[in-house]
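Reference record
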Amino acid sequence: MKLTELSIERPVLATVMSLVILLLGIIAFTRLSVREYPMIDTPVVSVRTIYRGASAEIMESQVSQPLEDELSGIEGIDVMKSVSREEVSEVTVKFRLTRDPDDAAADVRDRVARARDKLPDEVDEPVISKVEADADPIMWLAFFSDRHSPLEVSDFADRVVRDRLQTIPGVATVLIGGERRYSMRIWLDRERLAGYGLTPLDVETALRRENIEVPSGRIESSEREFTVLSETDLRTPEQFDDMIIREVNGYPVRLKDVGHAELGAEDERSSNRVDGAPAVGLGVVKQSTANLLEVARAVKAMLPEIQAALPPGMQFKIGTDRSAFVEESIKAVYRTLYEAQALVVVVIFVFLRSPRATLIPFLSIPVAIIGAFFFLYVLDFSINILTLLALVLAIGLVVDDAIVVLENIYRRIEEGLPPRQAALAGGREIGFAVLAVTITLIAVFVPMAFQTGTTGRLFREFALAVAGAVAVSGFVALTLVPMLCGRLLRHSSHNAAYQFTERFFVALNRGYEATLRAALRGWLLVVALALAAGGAGAWMFTQLKAELAPFEDRSDFVVLALGPEGASYDYMFRSMLDVERILAAVPEMQTLFIVVSPGVQRPAPINVGAAFATIKPWQERTRSQFDITRELAPKLGALPGVLAFPINRASLGMGGYRETPVQFVLQADTWEDLQVAVDALMARAAQNPALVNLDTDLKLNKPQLKVDVDRDKIANLGISAADVGRTLETLLGGREVTRFKRAGKQYEVIVKLADDARRRPNDLTDIYLRAGDGSLVQVDNVALLREAVAPRELNHFNRLRAAKITANVAPGHALGEALDWLAAEAKHVLPPGGRIDYDGVSREFREASQALAFTFGLAMVFIYLVLAAQFESFRDPLVILLSVPLAVAGAVAALYYTGNTLNVYSQIGMVMLIGLTAKNGILIVEFTRQLRAGGMAAREALVQASVQRLRPILMTSATMLLAAVPLALAHGAGAETLHPIGWVIIGGLLVGTLFSLYVVPVVYLLLAGRERVARPAGAPQPV
């Protein structure tokens, strides 16, 4: 290799090239952002529309359907789904990852604008927003007080704390949970209104007339001018109370005559509690490109300043903190990185028993690992759990090339060649094999970089980080390593310890040579054993449980509570107090954050509650998070009147706090057919022990009071249907009529009937309307009130009517098992034309499984083509790759016996095994071809090549295997995702290396033993 010879001749040049790589890597490392997972700007756009007073059926037919019709023609849609519930329609469009998110959002805005004429006039303007992948807050701060009302705490958090947090670099926005925003509440008394001959619409008209602020111009003189401000707006409850509504019989009727005004909360249908005290939460959302840990540290650095600004009696604490898990996970991976490097160095020293020789690959590791950061920076990647995991695995890979070169040169020095000549001869001889191994390993990871789907995009950074490190290691092995060998290594007499251990390695070579010759003679037995191992691996593969990714002990979990349809806020509040009581009894509990009716966007469902539990860090407890949630599940399940269950958050950043792993979608033409199918499948699923906490979003039993208006009567009386609807909306739902100013901010003025007058269904009929002649007419004279049931929400999935069945997976079972069972059972209950689909984590699991299977096959094809081009043979690559299935069988056996699952981490480990196992075959086949090109017989060339390459094969396999040991035995934050890939590499290398030492020579002799191998011009002559 010319590059190797140049480096040996010019050692300073070789040193400078490695130092430049180090310098670039260090600079890149300091400029890379830190995240939990790679940034995926998923093109997801939501359209949220509010139609006051509309039922779920109206929202579906008059809002969601027209929007879907218009949006469906946009290019690149992957999934479009809609939720239609009372007053709210939300259409979510998820595009394929190939679409630019900004372009997708622009297309949605254009189509919504086109559909606006098809929507009812009374709907609010649709709100179109991109759904950011990192839109979940990284931290929640909970504010509470024993001296201030929730309204005052909320106001302080909004006016003082929120603005300070939003000035922190990297903070995108600050959300307020459980907000009690000021408003002027106008509480009306319907009897007094009727007594004065007034209606709620009269009050609204007066408010719009009297509460107004307009500029009044200026007074100008020759020297000065004055701006005239007419304070015609209302600002205090007293001013609102004194407002004249109208004159009745010459007497001015004021608001205080028919009701009263007071400062109150705009929305009281949600609340937060922290550790048993009422609280207001502030959620810090970081910018998509910001460094998560830096933002979290900046927020924590500002906390003393916020503490100093708090009024007496007010306190705050950190409710949840995602950065804690990310920081601990990254520390754990760094620790694993150092452990792997130490183990690799120990292996090299054990094989070579020379400090000088051990120093050379030790120096090559940081050059390759740190140099990989430059590739991350150029590709606009980040430091995250997956890229760091890639570098942990890369330690075993990057040292392989250095070991192969070092061992070959070291062997020649031991044979008596001067160091410089040994470096030149050894470098020339092994250079092609190193290049072949490097290109092969890179070829393994290139297909992974082109995976589709969210999981594929996540592991793109993983794949290219490994490929970058391997590329640098190949360069270092051909430049720095031979130069250092020529300068540092010396032939010298060895001590007694070396001589003693050398006898072991000599005996190992002799034993391997004897068994290899026997294997070549008894090739039928070798082939039979290989087939048996492959068959056993195939059987165990069918027994493995499959899931998207292992759940991680994040020191936090969520308890979701679902109340019955029609449950009130008070009902859910009492239920969440029961949940709080159970969770507070957990000894490991650190912070408990309770939310009734979670959701920043209002209106939100009332019959939902969530508890965000943060437990003590990993090192401070003896039980795992999963032990705690398993203990809690039956206690929560026993709560009367509410379905409560714990949820461990999904890995890989998939799903929100409400999303369970199982999300199985049924589709049919009519709601009636769909209801029958859902009921039947739910009944069957209840008998399956793998599925727990079953629920469905198709519920047609929400209690409802229907007001059937007699249109003939209201027409005769001169009352419009709009007057009926607006009057009921104002008195029962509360109507935002105008605004008022307080402390420099504007707040809503809301007119509503007093709470005591809205407690019984009959209260609805005592409301009065104004007839055309000015008289008042009671509602029950023109309308009929009846009880009915209505759907809670109506969902569409890819424009078809759909219902989703959700569930958790019971311990001892896996997601793939649950989904397969549901798919099989759905065939028996679906009506003709019915379909199934998947959403959320379940959909990603299905897509990722298919994508990784395709990637495995594509990686095999890539390596075959690369090896065929390198060896100028279509036969030799087949020989090399035959040991790959056996390595995979070993990996499957390791997963099977350690109780791990088939998931994206273990599957990626299997893809890595292709390159790791092929490396051994390359070393044997390439050196065999060199010997045969020199005239040696095929059998003898195979034996000699295999024996001479035994030590580098064992060294490289042992270094990679021991680099994986810290992964397999990892503990602490994020350890659950490291175990599968660690055990896959350990099992795969143990079995794959063993079989490659015998299967590759046997198959090579059978397939290529009689083929004549010509020595290429200029090829090194083996010695």
Remarks:
- The longest strand covers residues 277-286.
- Residues 1015-1023 have pLDDT under 50 and may be disordered.
- The two ends are 17 Å apart (CA to CA).
